[in-house]
Write a structure and sequence with these properties.
This protein is α+β, with helices and mostly antiparallel strands. The protein is built from 12 helices and 14 strands.
Length: 350
């Protein structure tokens, strides 16, 4: 009898794993029962469901959003990856509202976002390659051009492109980079520094009235590479005019035409294009080149603004070259992050 009493007391008041498991099951059944017993779970949250479907349509048909009104399409495409943040927000609201309809509707934007950007979540970097390239918008108001030059030179780049150079700062960059780079050329506000010989250097007309793009041949040990450095016009978001990008779009067309007529097989474009790979306004360039970040990067590689990167407007794109890895470098005195890539020269380039 004493043993039976002891066992009964232990079973009623114990706190072992079996007792805790019972509590969790009761909590789970209480929550599930609330959903199962609620006849309004399919009628509640219809507005949330509509928002979820609208989000899916915007991401799926972003190329159909017209640019006629304030370049709205380009604006959406610039920040297109960030639309995915609305999915968890809507998920929380759907759970709070206890809406089965909204939860099911959320599958649509989730699947569309993963289809568009799921590949960016994986690490595609590889070892190898014979040429390291870096591009950096150094910012005309950079308070420490000498330090910025040392930082990007420390990246080990074989070819370095700088944009937004001022006449006053060029001598500082030249002096700081001279120990690392034997060859260089500055055209207008852009420049290229190289460890390998440069030839056929010339400016590239962007229909702007001054030089913000150039082209040079880099004779690397593995072959000749045509290097384009470009800084397309800035864009602005204005209340009365929307996303103003007409001059940038026109300059992108000029740049794309120059690259299309490039006779060398190996081509790399380095620069601040003030637009992302998703922006249809850059199709003249992006349709004929590959993004190193998209092909061989890890993540989105956002480069601007440096304090809290939200978009990759600094680009490294290639044609005839094989991207092996792509990454961003630490912040310098600029409002942009430098971006780098390691590529393999697959042909002689001649």
């Amino acid at each position: 009898m004493a043993q039976q009493a002891y066992m009964t007391e232990t079973d009623d008041g114990g706190s072992g794993p079996e007792h805790r498991g019972t509590r969790l099951r009761r909590l789970r059944d209480r929550l599930a029962g609330g959903w199962r017993g609620d006849p309004r779970i399919w009628r509640r949250g219809l507005i949330l469901a509509a928002c979820a479907l609208l989000l899916a349509v915007v991401m799926l048909l972003h190329a159909q959003i017209p640019n006629a009104i304030g370049n709205l399409g380009s604006l959406v495409e610039t920040f297109l990856p960030w639309l995915g943040l609305f999915v968890p927000v809507l998920l929380v609201l759907a759970v709070v509202r206890r809406s089965a309809t909204a939860l099911i509707a959320l599958l649509a934007p989730a699947v569309v976002w993963l289809n568009l950007f799921g590949g960016q979540l994986s690490d595609k970097t590889a070892t190898g390659g014979d040429l390291t390239v870096v591009t950096h918008n150094v910012n005309a108001d950079n308070p420490d051009p000498s330090g910025t030059a040392r930082d990007v030179a420390a990246s080990g780049a074989d070819v370095l492109a700088l944009e937004e150079l001022t006449q006053e700062a060029v001598p500082t960059y030249e002096k700081a980079l001279a120990p690392t780079y034997k060859y260089h050329s500055v055209q207008g506000t852009v420049g290229v520094w190289s460890k390998h010989p440069l030839s056929d250097v010339r400016d590239v007309d962007l229909d702007m009235g001054w030089t913000r793009a150039m082209r040079a041949t880099v004779t690397a040990p593995s072959g000749k590479v045509a290097v384009y450095v470009a800084h397309l016009p800035s864009v602005r978001v204005k209340m009365e005019a929307g996303f103003t990008a007409r001059q940038r779009d026109r300059s992108a067309d000029y740049l794309g035409e120059a690259i299309a007529h490039e006779p060398l097989d190996n081509v790399v474009l380095l620069g601040d294009l003030n637009g992302t790979m998703n922006d249809r306004a850059l199709n003249a360039v992006t349709s004929q080149m590959r993004s190193t970040q998209g092909a061989a990067g890890n993540g989105f590689g956002f480069s601007w603004p440096a304090s809290f990167p939200m978009a990759r407007i600094d680009q490294i794109m290639v044609r005839g070259l094989t991207p092996e890895s792509s990454w961003t470098l630490p912040q310098t005195g600029s409002d942009h992050l430098p971006v780098a890539a390691r590529v393999k020269v697959t042909t002689s380039g001649s």
